[in-house]
Amino acid sequence: MKQKMNILCIVILIFTVAMTISQFSGLFFSAKNTEPVTMLNVQPSHFGDDNNITLIDNNTGTAVRAWIKEVIVVDSCILSPKDFVMKLLVLIPLSLVSLVTWIMFVIYLVKLVFAINKGKVFTWKTIRLLRTAGWTTLISNAFCIISTFYLIYDPSRWLSPKGYIFDYSYAIEQIPSLLPGLLLLLMAQIFGIGLKQKEELEQVV
User: Taking the model in full, what pTM does it have?
Assistant: First the structure.
């Protein structure tokens, strides 16, 4: 039973690490690491000749029409120094909160695993560890999602891509990253109900 619990905790940790890395990797990206850039998530408002790009089929040499979903723009081309500072003022606190709570999640999850391996499964201390781990990963991933939404919304205030609209589907796709935190909170609630019933039964006996 302990082995299954350890495996479950490891799976949750790996899943959360993967989601966090994927979200943080898009916050600051530069092809040459020389200056900050913004990646715009867009989708075609229509499929026409005025908003397509041309790809060449290497086998036949024929031109193939295509439409884009992501555009990389150098920040200095679209942001004034004041706007760039405002962007950092928004993203840095969001990123720090997400990073700190994620580190707390790892610490509490490790404490939980050690407590379970010592046989302390149905205790209020273990339930508090489980609940805290759930809240920290939930907050961490929630702030990552907020950052993703902001990175899509912010350029839309001054950019109008011709033949395209801004696409929030990438940010929406990050919402499932909240599931590990919700799962841990559900487990804590179930453990708490079971422990409370056990204590009430012992008092009756």
Answer: 0.73
pLDDT single digits (tens) 72-101: 887 777 777 777 788 888 888 988 898 899
Question: The tokens of 111 are what?
Answer: 């404490």
d(CA 149, CA 23): 11
Distance CA 15, CA 38 (A): 26
Say if CB 162 and CB 49 are below 8 A apart: no
Query: 49 is written with which tokens?
Result: 């000749």
Give CA–CA dist 154/168, Å, rounded: 12
φ, ψ of residue 201 to 5 degrees: the values are: -65, -40
d(CA 138, CA 184): 9
The radius of gyration of the chain from alpha carbons, rounded to an integer in Å, stands at 23
CA-to-CA distance for 23 and 171, rounded, in angstroms?
9
Sequence-separated (6 or more) residues with CB below 8 Å from residue 156: 166
